[in-house]
Amino acid sequence: xxxxxxxxxxxxxxxxxxxxxxxxxxxxxxxxxxxxxxxxxxxxxxxxxxxxxxxxxxxxxxxxxxxxxxxxxxxxxxxxxxxxxxxxxxxxxx
Length: 94
Prior knowledge:
The chain is mostly beta strands. The chain has strands at residues 22-26, 31-34, 51-56.
């Protein structure tokens, strides 16, 4: 069931526990990466502040290279795949 978003919902504030890994931004615009279980830190100038989740943390295998499955292979003696019953190869049975 989806949760209705109310614009009166309060964002997490300094001292509360982080529930989701990700990048958070405070009211002053400072971004910080926080992990689940950490506590939201206080801002050096503002003190206690609200934090907003701006980006989820994705733990993937990305190394900055294209996925090998997406790299086109060299055309080497491809066999034709018949995708429709009316498509025939040049065998004389057309």
